[in-house]
Model the fold of this input.
Amino acid sequence: METFAVLGVQVNAVQIPEAIERMEQWIETRQGSRYVAVTGMHGVSESRLDPALRTILNSAGMVVPDGMPLVWLGRLRGHRLRRRVYGPELMLEFCRATATRGLRHYFYGGGPGVADDLAAQMAGRFPGLIVAGTCSPPFRPLTPDEDAEVVARINASRADILWVGLSTPKQERWMHQHRDRLDVPVMVGVGAAFDIHSGRVRQAPVWMREHGLEWFYRLLHEPRRLWRRYVILGSVFVCNVSLELAGLRRFE
Done:
């Protein structure tokens, strides 16, 4: 699978159909637990501040380009990327493609009740989809005993795929830390998909999502929470990418 580098992060040059195919292969072969990092400008920017996060991203089974800036950079590197691999859409399309195949889905993340509502929405929308379990963990760090209980519950569920909605970069760290303790062949960090598909947050219009303007929509609706992500980190991202493209700085 071809990749291209963005500020030291290796991004897979894939679209949603290829990502789904690879995830299905992992489920079929069941050779360990692999995780998918659904990453855009925010994740790459955070990885510049935290080398450990950069290692986590580069250890993923796939890093898919969720964000038009990464799509545009992939095109500049010669890859035929038509669209972003949008996390909420990846979840929907995977569920649509596999609903009648008997796969077991576990939903981990979101605020109180969100995982339950999301599971109900997915089961209602895609007849045949099997919900293996749900869990909305507290926002505080879990105690070792609580964490062990979560791992035991997920493993006992015999899940084929674990959807993780803890937001970036928390969800990527969680998947990396738990990959050797979980029997689930695929974990996918989909962040905002939990709130979007459970009906708690409205998506940006399609035309904004497809033209790299979703960040503006989200910033208008949640300025206090997202201003640092999009104003500060976004500016640094653009500056660093410009230096990299001009050959003035190399990021590893």
